[in-house]
Amino acid sequence: MRFLVAGLNYRTATTELLERVSVGNTELPDLLLRLQRQLGETLVLSTCNRTEVYTTGEDSVVARSRLLHALGEMAGLDDDEVTRVAYLHEGDAAVRHAIRVTCGLDSMVIGEHQIAGQVQTALRAAGEAGSVDTPLSRLFHFALRSSRRIRETTGIGRSRITVSSIGVQLVERAIGSLDDRRVLLVGAGETGKLAARTLGRMGAGGLTVAGRVAERTARIAKELGGDWILRDDLIPAIAKADVVISATAASELVITADMVHEAMAEHTSPSIVMLDLAMPRDIDPAIGDLPGVTLYGLPDLQAIADEHRAERADAAAEAEALVERDIPRFNESLTALATEPVIRALGAHAEQIRLRELEAGLRRLDGLSDEQRAVIESMTRSVVSKILADPITFLRTRDDDDAASAVSRLFGLPETDAGAKPTAMEGDDG
User: Do 191 and 91 sit in the same domain of this protein?
Assistant: First the structure.
């Protein structure tokens, strides 16, 4: 069994392609079930900067072909096209990639914290859909624990820099001082809230939150210290704003060119800066061509992200070394997972034989003292332990299922629960 991952990210794909392959929360359950029928166990991680499909396979050639074909279907690409633009990792390279992604080493903003939460969400969704089995579940629980250790040990995540915070830095560079600037936040998710808090710390003035549901939008606005409106009232709100930040989970454009054109006719200042942090995009790219409008999207954040990456180069190198250390640790834990049921069954089988033969032998030895009985008991335990030492070592040092099967057949063991499938959220993912 080998791990495989194929994906598209901000380095390998255009924004348009990332939009096509992006998976929203509402579509994810059906997609997972479809992919499970095609690939076997499956987990999908889709964020603003990547969409990746993780699976496992016995025959890596067949698994690679199926995985790339499935990703191509998601992106609307044929097999040749997806092969040219997608990355694919298998075996230890796939394990390495999962850990690097989870701890933020592969993010646009190196060490950013949101990705670990997004991995947890992806794992939970796969568990709820029933598309993830023991191997992938173990991989991502391990990756989450590894991420915590790496962040605690290195400086990779210092200052809690995020995509949202560097987006605000980009806005500040375009607009100058943020003092008393009026901000419209469209969307009340975590990304938008992080941006709004950063703007507040940098001196921005009044904040208005626009959402779809009145009760939730009002609650978020109160939490952020601002006013609120429903999305139906976006045009007059845009007309009053100096900065518009949009970060919704909508599958279609939220702010169109016609809306902004109408708003700019009533705008109280000659210019406005708009920041689109959504994937798929919320803001029509054509808006950037309108007079007085400066529009930034996720690809525009790369220059500032690179500055932070350079600042954290030493911490990143230290984190990479810890990732390499964790790959064999994970493989050892997975091997133990596959073989421990057989080891337990082997021990129980040997113990049954020992007790049966010990009882028969003691019945033929009348007049033994308690001390003599204890010596014989200890001796039989020692003999069994020594006999089992080599097969147990063999099982714990092999990385394939054939070893467990061979030992089971050799000793005539009953079927074990090795194939049991724990839920995706088992273990310490906290």
Answer: no
Same domain? 36 vs 84: yes
The neighbour count for residue 164, using CB atoms within 10 Å, is 26
Please indicate, yes or no, if residue 131 is contained in any of the structural domains: yes
Q: What is the residue-wise DSSP string for 251-272? A: SS-SB-HHHHHHHHHT-SSS-E
Distance CA 44, CA 125 (A): 9
Distance between CA 51 and CA 7 in Å, rounded? 6
pTM for this predicted structure: 0.77
Kindly state whether residue 424 falls inside one of the protein's structural domains.
no
Catalytic residue positions? Answer: 48
Identity of the amino acid at 177: S
CATH number of the domain to which 217 belongs? 3.40.50.720
Domain boundary among 141, 160, 179: 160
Write out the residue range of the structural domain in which residue 251 sits: 163-309
Q: Write phi, then psi, for 238 (nearest 5 degrees).
A: -65, -40
DSSP string, 381-421: HHHHHHHHHHHHHHHHT--SHHHHHHHHHHHTPPP-STT--
Average pLDDT per 10 consecutive residues for the chain, totaling 430 residues: 93 93 92 95 95 91 93 94 95 97 93 91 92 90 94 83 86 85 88 83 85 90 90 94 92 94 88 93 95 93 85 92 95 75 85 91 88 90 84 67 79 61 39
Q: At what angle do helices 114-129 and 92-103 cross, to 10 degrees?
A: 120
Q: What's the residue count for the chain?
A: 430
My answer on whether 169 and 155 are in the same domain is no
CA dihedral sign, ordered 397, 398, 404, 406: negative
Cα separation values, 324 from 92, 137, 312, 319, Å:
10, 20, 18, 9
> Is residue 184 domain-shared with residue 70, that is, in the same domain?
no
The one-letter amino acid at 426: E
Could you tell me if 358 and 253 lie in one domain? no
Look at the chain and report how many structural domains it folds into. 3
